[in-house]
Specification:
Blueprint lengths: L1 E8 L3 H12 L5 E3 L15 E2 L6 H21 L10 E5 L2 H12 L7 E2 L2 H7 L10 E5 L3 E2 L2 H14 L3 E3 L4 E7 L2 E6 L2 E10 L5 H6 L10 E7 L10 E4 L4 E5 L5 E10 L7
Bound molecules: flavin-adenine dinucleotide.
The site of flavin-adenine dinucleotide has 30 residues, from α1 and β12.
């Protein structure tokens, strides 16, 4: 049976990022991925990076996340394709404008600017601005390539002596003395510590250990067009609707309209 100091279950952005931070401490994580890199949400992620959030606790994380994305390419020695072309938050009704103004008042001044309708028109001539009631530009925010982040972390984990095995679905984690026994599709492993970062599947793995975390899978869809001539620099969002539109560096225009709600079968969405 192979033994390891610390194992990480799941190799999405979170598992890979955690494994990297463990490896940076001089330890050698063993990472298990059930399918392929980017199989989970990370491979479907639009990549919008914001430094703000209405919930003050999440806002602290968002602010740190933005700083992290700014320094990550240098730290990993790998281009994460982070484009700081800004996020344009646009209110199209008086109610939206009122709520937006109130929300942005709670954010640090200097992290965004208000654009008049004329300024929006001159900066982004391809946008129809007649209905714009209020518009803020958060210019440090933007788009990252989630798979480039994942690959950057993975390369760094391997460089630092960590190991990633796939396809290696973890079937169960069971206590064995002061260690943990990990049953996988590739055989059994023993670890002193295990980090579970298996996305929405974390709940079922942890429930077998008597740990219940309130994670529910939510379906979310993204519309992706064929690649088009690049024209859309910022990410555009409309508050209260979940609407987000952006253009990737390959030219695809992508958009979402928020969550489709709870589902037990994500293959349906
Ligand atoms: C359509 C869409 C758009 C999104 N857009 C954005 C956005 O613009 N900005 C943003 O910040 N966030 C966005 N998100 C959210 C973001 O993608 C997720 O928060 C993030 O990817 C979660 O990463 P993760 O590593 O926790 O999970 P995942 O990426 O789901 O990774 C979990 C991994 O664990 C593996 N796994 C599962 N079970 C096991 C097992 N038993 N054994 C071994 N491996 C296992 C899976 O195969 C998977 O690879 C979006 C999500 C979706 C679906």
């Amino acid at each position: 049976m192979k033994k390891t100091d610390i194992a990480v279950v799941g190799c999405g952005a979170l598992g890979a990022g955690i494994a990297y931070n463990i490896a940076k401490l001089g330890r050698k994580p063993l990472v298990f991925e059930a399918k392929y890199f980017g199989y989970g949400s990370t491979g479907r992620d639009i990549g919008v990076v914001r430094g703000r959030h209405r919930d003050p606790d999440v806002a602290k994380l968002a602010s740190e996340g933005l700083k992290l994305h700014e320094k990550l390419p240098d730290e990993l020695g790998s281009n994460t394709l982070f484009r700081q072309d800004g996020v344009l938050t646009v209110a199209l009704t008086s109610e939206e404008a009122e709520a937006l103004e109130k929300e942005f008042k709670s954010y640090a001044s200097g992290s965004f600017i208000e654009l008049s309708r004329d300024e929006v028109r001159s900066r982004y001539p391809y946008l129809r601005v007649d209905d714009v009631k209020l518009c803020y530009l958060s210019s440090r925010e933007g788009l990252v390539h989630p798979l480039a982040v994942l690959w950057g972390y993975l390369d760094a984990v391997r460089r630092l002596g960590g190991e990633v095995v796939k396809p290696a679905e973890v079937i169960s984690i069971e206590p064995k003395g002061d260690k943990l026994n990990i049953k996988t599709a590739l055989g059994e492993y023993e670890a002193s510590k295990v980090v579970v970062a298996a996305g929405f599947r974390s709940r079922e793995l942890l429930s077998k250990l008597g740990i219940d975390i309130p994670l529910e899978p939510l379906a979310k869809e993204a519309l992706v067009t064929e690649p088009m001539r690049p024209f859309l620099d910022p990410v555009i969002e409309r508050p209260g609707t979940g609407l987000v539109v952006a253009q990737t560096m390959r030219g695809e225009v992508i958009g979402t309209v928020g969550s489709l709600g709870k589902t037990s079968d994500l293959t349906l969405s």
